[in-house]
Design a protein that fits this description.
- The complex is a heterodimer of chains A (259) and B (214).
- Chain A is an alpha/beta fold and 259 residues long.
- Chain A has one domain: 3-Layer(aba) Sandwich (Rossmann fold).
- Chain A is built from 9 helices and 9 strands.
- Chain A has a 6-stranded mixed beta sheet with strand order 5-6-7-3-8-9, sandwiched between helices.
- The longest helix of chain A has 16 residues.
- Chain A is globular, with a radius of gyration of 21 Å.
- With 214 residues, chain B is an all-alpha fold.
- Chain B has 10 helices and no strands.
- The longest helix of chain B is centred in the N-terminal third of the chain and has 28 residues.
- The chains are: A alpha/beta (259), B mainly alpha (214).
- Chains A and B meet through helix 1 of A and helix 3 of B.
């Protein structure tokens, strides 16, 4: 049984040369087409035929240079965007931590915000109420639970967001760079919690630039470059392949960058 | 309100019994629609991260904006009751129809908001266009004048405006102590259904590209 099945996924973005965001722009554009100008755009394939399967209870590290499609892949799995081609199967409830702190409101208290955010992350109101104490204690914010959100330090805000996301009790977790927030103590705490989740048979897919973390924590890794799947398999192998590419760039890359 | 009362009842001599109460009702019904739809219109573009970073049924974002507006409007109508009493209006059990009217207007606002909010994602100047349309709509509805002023050959066209019907219905229950007419009822219900359908279909077909455009 697989938690995530990604089958030949393609995702295209269009970057228009001329940005049209108003009706007026579109009218003007329509007129210029009559005069022989073409509506042109740059086509950009952010993901090109990605294939992989992640088993239940496995964790996956997604690595690759900036702009290689890591976050796009995560967004497609999370269902925020739709793929242009290919099939995807998600077996189990999903908690996606793509960005921390969405929907937080400055003037509500920490407790109220925890409720709102919990519901946004897919908890029922009653469940969110039940878990609120464990959320706040995990975030170490018990003393501040009635403080206004805006008076927290930004690290505390992020800790709160992360604690709620972890407490959603989903079966599959998608995490985008979120582990790098908070102080070291909190990071360790999060990792411990993730290890517990793994023991409970939950699957985790995380995007990170922290290679050591991926090696230590994930048994599988996926290496993306320019939207292509370079390598997928045991994390040790994939990470060493990535490091190899970084340290000894291939000649073709050199030509492209002109170095 | 005071200014409008002075201008229209004394200067323009609008001949309606109990003009302040009459005007107040029209204004509140209009405000509910105007504020609801303009807030609904910007609901998606104001909170892009709710669309791009959370997998949430998107119509909920519009619905929550509309619901907040419903609460605001309901409070306005609650404060209307003592005001009407002070203005010498007899409050009868027909007042109990008000929640039904508010609910149908809410559905109307929701249908329009679905349509406008999804279009605004790709066409940002819908915001300005809608503000203009609302200004026009204000004078195309019997808020500051009575619909008897409309020449009879345009009256048919004028009367099928659902906002006109909602205003007339609300005035009927408060001032004439009667139920909204069958005509009011059928126009409002059919436009609510039509707008929910159109809004829903447009929203659904555009929703897949929201995340890329915001």
């Amino acid at each position: 049984m697989y938690a995530i099945v990604v089958d030949d996924i393609w995702k295209r973005f269009r970057i228009p040369h001329e940005k049209r965001t108003t009706i007026l722009d579109h009218l003007a554009g329509a007129l210029s087409v009559l005069e022989g100008e073409r509506y042109s755009y740059e086509e950009f394939w952010a993901l090109k035929g990605i294939n992989f399967r992640l088993g239940n209870g496995e964790s996956l590290g997604i690595i690759g240079p900036n702009g290689s499609g890591k976050s796009t892949l995560l967004k497609l799995i999370a269902g925020v965007m739709k793929a242009d081609k290919g099939k995807m199967e998600i077996n189990g409830s999903l908690a996606s931590i793509l960005e921390l702190g969405i929907g937080f409101h400055n003037d509500l208290t920490v407790k109220e915000n925890a409720l709102v955010y919990g519901v946004l992350m897919g908890l029922r109101r009653s469940e969110a109420k039940k878990r609120i104490d464990s959320i706040i204690s995990f975030a170490d914010l018990a003393r501040f639970q009635d403080a206004r959100f805006k008076n927290l330090s930004s690290g505390m805000q992020v800790r709160l967001a992360f604690s709620i996301a972890i407490e959603t009790r989903a079966e599959i977790f998608l995490v985008d760079e979120a582990l790098s927030v908070g102080d070291i103590e909190f990071q360790e705490k999060c990792l411990d919690r993730f290890r517990e989740l793994k023991k409970e048979g939950k699957s985790i897919a995380l995007v990170s630039h922290r290679i050591d973390l991926i090696k230590a924590f994930c048994e599988k890794a996926l290496y993306l470059q320019n939207g292509e799947l370079k390598s997928f398999g045991p994390s040790e192998d994939v990470v060493s392949r990535y490091l190899e590419d970084v340290r000894h760039p291939k000649p073709s890359v050199n030509v492209a960058t002109g170095v | 309100m005071l200014i409008l009362t002075v201008v229209f009842s004394f200067l323009l001599r609008v001949s309606v019994p109990n003009f302040p109460a009459w005007l107040l009702i029209g204004l509140l019904v209009w405000r509910f629609f105007a504020i609801g739809t303009s807030q609904g219109l910007t609901s998606l573009i104001e909170e892009p991260s709710l669309v791009t970073k959370v997998n949430l049924p998107r119509y909920l974002i519009v619905l929550s904006s509309n619901t907040a507006n419903l609460l605001g409007a309901s409070l306005e109508f609650v404060t209307l009751l003592p005001l009407l009493f002070l203005l010498g209006v007899n409050l009868t059990p027909y007042v109990l129809v008000l929640p039904v009217i508010l609910l149908t207007e809410f559905l109307l606002v929701f249908g329009v908001s679905l349509l406008l909010s999804s279009l605004t994602v790709s066409y940002r100047d819908f915001n300005e266009l809608w503000t203009l349309a609302l200004q026009l709509g204000f004078f195309l509805s019997p808020i500051v004048y009575d619909s008897s002023l409309i020449p009879s050959r345009y009256l048919y066209l004028y009367s099928i405006n659902p906002i006109t019907r909602l205003i007339e219905s609300t005035r009927a229950i408060f001032l004439q102590h009667q139920l909204p007419s069958q005509f009011d009822f059928s126009i409002v219900i059919s436009s609510v259904l039509l707008l929910l359908l159109v809004g829903g279909v447009v929203f659904r077909s555009l929703e897949g590209r929201f995340a890329e455009q915001l």
